[in-house]
Each structure stands twice: as C-alpha cells, then as structure tokens.
Specification:
alpha/beta; 23 helices; 10% strand
Length: 468
C-alpha cells in the first residue's frame, strides 16, 4: 500500500466516527443545499444551462492549444509577461525568480488552488519571504498551519469558538465569537500587510482567449486589494481555465456562484488584462501570468477522461459526496478532494500512488448529477480503477489476485453461488451472536457502516417456487 493510501485509511478511520465533526459539516452542507436550490430556480432552464456550459468547456479543452496561444498573444499586447510552466518545480522557480528580481520581502496572496497544488507557500517561506493569505478562510487555516479543507470553504470544519480562540492566541485580538467581530479582527491584521506587500499573487477562475483577460470572482474584495496595491502582480493559472469568448462569462459567473456558494452572483467579479495603463489610477506597475501545465496535458491526451479538465472548481461535487461528508477534506491528502480530486489527482500525481482515491466512492452518481459542466465523474472513478489494475500500469496485490480467483468460479457456477448464499444466511445468524466483539469477522466493515442483510430468498429460488 502506498504512503498516501496508508495516510488516507488512518485519517478516515479517525475522522469517520467523529460525530462532532460530522455534525459541523452536515449543518454547513444543509444550509448550502437550501440556498443552492433556490438560486438554481432563477435559471430559465437549468439543464439547458448545464448543456451549454459542458459544450463550451468541451470546445475550449479540445482546442486548448489554439485558445492558449490566442490568450497569450492578447494579454502580452497590453504589457503582461506570460510564463509557461511545464511542472510544479518550474512554476515555483519562475515565481521565485520574479520575487528576487523585485527584491521583495512581503507577499500577499488571494485564494489560489494552483498555489496549493505546487506548494508555493512552502517554497516562498523557505526562501525567506513573508507570505500572507488574504482570503479569510485561507488566512484562518494558514494561522493553524493547515491546508484548505474544501475548494470553496477552506475553514468549513471550524466553529466560531475555535476561530475566536485561534485569533486570541495568534493575533491577541478576539472580542467575541460573533462572525462580524472576527472578520474585523482579520481585516485589521490584513490591511497592514496589503500596504507592506511588494508583490501580490492571485489565482484565476477563468482566462478569456478572445480578449486576453483574467477573470477573478470573490466575496471579500481581498483579491482586488492583492492586485491593486502591490507594485507587482502575479497570477498563477492552470491552462484548463481557458474560455473561448468574453460572452461565456455571462453563463459561467452566475453558474459558479450558484453551485459554489448558493449565490446568484458573487460580490466581486473583476477582470485583469495587464499592468496599469497610462491614465489609470491604480493597478500594478508590472503584471506576470504563469500558465501551469503540471500533467494537465497528460490528462488532455486521454480522450476518455479529458472532460475532467472542464472542472470550474465550484466544489459542488464535494458538497453532495457521502464520502467527503464523512471522512472530511484533509483526509484526501491533496488540495483537490472529493470526487473531482479522486478523478484528477491520480493523473496529476501518479496513478499507482493515488489509485486509492478512486475507491473512496459509493459510486452513487450524485457528483455527476450535480456537476454544472456535466463531467462524468463516477464513471471516471471506475475508469481509474480499471487503469490502475491494467498490466501496463500496475499489478494487483497477492490478496487481490487471491480474492478474484476465489470469486470467479463461485460467480460463474449457479449451483455454487446458490450454496454460498445459503451458507451466508447461516453465517449472518451466527454473526449475530458475536456482533461487535473482537471475533466478529465483519468488524472492519461494521465499525463505520451497517452490514446489509442477505435476502431471505433469492430471485432464482423465488422463480423456482413460482414454477411449482
């Protein structure tokens, strides 16, 4: 078993029985579901909107080379410096090089999952820079020295009381656990950093090929301050965030808001097309855009699963996933958790090391049903399982081979299958005598779930009885 798989199993066993944690997440998800469903009704045809979004992203991904070249050409025409990063190390080196050239000391960041993906903060802090997350949720988990819990809600797993205690300990300022009061505490601390920052780093929600602009959507205004106040701005964006046309935002901005946070539209939707132009009052003097591949083109080459690159990082599939709700975001061990993370992480970080994530699923299909761009998520999980066991990618373990060698002849012989079913019914009765004890053979399963009862009568037995 790989190290990531071992850590996943250990963390899942620890978190799944934690009813307090589960209660926090279920409460948050319940509130989200109510407002999400209300906002979906504002669309004249929600399924039609999904179909259009899926077609738009399909076209963007399948012509990625053309759209990327168009985007780079258009944004460079306004003075932006575009950098191409093949992998995480290259992206880190590009950004660290810019920081050295600018003799930076303080860096302020807005929310960027790509920076978490390449462990950018660790690299900058190791190089001696002070790095401050400006998104409130990201700032909270940074103070706790934790990765984000969720794509959209980084601090979802924490209560107001825990945040109050954290601010009291780290900032010596927490008058109450009132959300507004806690927000003001963070604001007072962060405003100083905006003024001190030499460089601002952002992520991006979309990159528009037609006009060469970066679109960032947020609720706090922190990304605008990150972009406007420091003299140098850097945007790190995955190459899959491309949209062909500016008019596509008319669909994708409200769709992202509805599925991400249950809003009709997020509070701040800003477009960045370059450094400060003559006559403009604010903005950076220098603007860099780093286009990150990091195995995305490998996924692009897989015609069967490339639609996963259409993900708009709304987090909707995490919100409906029963596995995510029970084991929590940190258990996945990767910035991209839940169903979408279980699909793309094996492509981004190695199939054999991360194949266990594709088994962390009930295959209920809720993720596919809710995905606004109609990514076939639960089937991709099955395809990852198949690919992980293929002779060209890896060999099954001895126990896996043994299990299937035993299962195959039983499943292929009706008489043997019938006998096994009858014996299983007897076994269920005997298990009732040892249920929950140390000698319970199903204890590993029943610690976190119920053992489904075996039917008292099989269909074959019922059919035979009807014939008589």
């Amino acid at each position: 078993m790989s190290a990531p798989a071992t850590h996943f199993n250990e963390d899942a066993r620890r978190v799944a029985p934690d009813t307090r944690h589960r209660g926090i997440i279920q409460t948050a998800m319940g509130k989200y579901e109510v407002v999400r469903d209300q906002r979906k009704l504002l669309f004249q045809d929600w399924q039609g909107a999904r179909n259009l979004a899926a077609r738009t992203k399909f076209e963007a991904v399948n012509h990625l080379d053309t759209h990327l070249a168009e985007f780079a050409r258009n944004i460079e025409a306004r003075g932006t410096k575009v950098h191409w990063a093949s992998n995480a190390e290259q992206a880190r080196n590009i950004i660290l090089g810019i920081l050295r050239d600018k003799q930076a000391k303080v860096i302020v960041k807005s929310k960027a999952m790509t920076s978490e993906e390449i462990h950018l903060n660790d690299a900058m802090e190791h190089a001696g820079y002070e790095v401050v997350e400006s998104d409130l949720g990201e700032y909270i988990v940074q103070l706790r020295k934790e990765p984000p819990y969720h794509l959209v809600f980084p601090a979802m797993h924490l209560t107001r009381g825990e945040i109050k205690d954290l601010f009291q300990k780290k900032l010596n300022d927490a008058p109450s656990d009132d959300p507004e009061a806690l927000t003001m505490v963070a604001r007072r601390a962060l405003r100083k950093k905006y003024l001190q920052a030499d460089v601002g780093i952002t992520g991006a929600n979309f990159a528009i090929a037609e006009t060469g602009i970066i679109s960032i959507t947020e609720n706090e205004g922190n990304a605008r301050l990150t972009a406007a106040l420091p003299k140098t701005m850097i945007t790190l964006v995955g190459i899959e965030k491309i949209l062909p046309r500016l008019e596509d935002l008319a669909l994708f901005l409200p769709m992202l808001a509805v599925m991400g946070t249950g809003q009709a539209l997020t509070c701040y939707n800003t477009m960045y097309g370059g450094p400060r132009q003559p006559g403009e009052a604010d903005g950076p003097e220098e603007y860099h855009v780093v286009l990150l591949d990091n195995q995305r083109t490998t996924l692009l080459a897989d015609a069967e699963q490339r639609d996963a690159l259409g993900c708009i990082r709304c987090g909707a599939c995490l919100n409906v996933c029963p596995i995510f709700r029970n084991v929590g975001g940190h258990t996945y061990g990767t910035v991209y958790g839940g169903p979408i993370g279980s699909v793309i992480t094996p492509h981004l970080r190695g199939l054999q090391q991360w194949k266990h994530l594709s088994y962390a699923s009930s295959l209920c299909g809720a993720c596919t049903e809710t995905c606004p761009v109609k990514i076939d998520l639960h089937h991709h999980l099955l395809q990852n399982r198949r690919n992980a066991s293929a002779p060209t990618t890896g060999k099954p373990s001895f126990l896996q081979k043994l299990a299937f060698k035993i299962f195959a002849p039983v499943a292929n012989k009706p008489a043997l299958w019938s006998l096994t079913t009858k014996l299983s019914r007897i076994g269920m009765k005997l298990r009732g005598l040892v249920n929950g004890s140390a000698i319970d053979p199903a204890q590993a399963w029943t610690k976190t779930r119920d053992l489904p009862p075996i039917a008292k009568q099989s269909f074959r037995e019922w059919w035979k009885e009807q014939g008589k």
